[in-house]
Amino acid sequence: MTTLQTRNTVKATWLVTLCTLTLACGYGSKNYAPAAGTVPAIRQLNPAAATAGDAAFTLTVDGTNFAAKAVVNWNGAAQSANTAYVSPNQLTVAIPAAAIATSGTIKVTVTNPGTPGTGMYGSGGTLPETSKSMDFNVN
């Protein structure tokens, strides 16, 4: 065997080894899909109602599975700056007087944020999850 043939054989062997190791390490099987997150549940709102034209107030949301960065949604609008985490079972949110200026039914939900993936290819994250709504009545 000539020196040129030996070099080509060594190069081919290295190429096959490199391809095998790359595929064996999972390079070809990236999984970017996040898993389902924890779904929060609202048990009670306190107060459960207000009178149109009342002053601003703090709404307490009791339930389960609230994440530390959970957000209360008031009629679909996230109250990110106004939501305070108390415990996995309680959140509070500052409701401005303008939000209860007129009578009607307000849908209140809680959203747990998703978490980013931390794996080699960004896998391992979770999706944001939102509770079923509970009605808040403005009389």
Q: Care to describe what's here?
A:
This protein is α+β, with helices and mostly antiparallel strands and 139 residues long. It has 2 domains: 1-29; 41-138, Immunoglobulins (Immunoglobulin-like), CATH 2.60.40. It contains 1 helix and 10 strands. The chain has one helix at residues 3-24, and strands at residues 41-46, 49-50, 57-64, 71-74, 77-78, 83-87, 90-95, 104-112, 129-130, 134-138. Strands 2, 4, 5, 8, 9 and 10 form a 6-stranded mixed β-sheet that branches. Strands 1-3-7-6 form a 4-stranded antiparallel β-sheet, with no helix packed on it. It is rod-shaped. The chain starts with a helix and ends with a strand. The mean pLDDT is 87.
Topology:
Elements: H1 3-24, E1 41-46, E2 49-50, E3 57-64, E4 71-74, E5 77-78, E6 83-87, E7 90-95, E8 104-112, E9 129-130, E10 134-138
Keyphrases for this structure?
single chain; 139 residues; alpha+beta; Immunoglobulin-like; 2 domains; 6-stranded mixed beta sheet; 4-stranded antiparallel beta sheet; 35% strand; rod-shaped
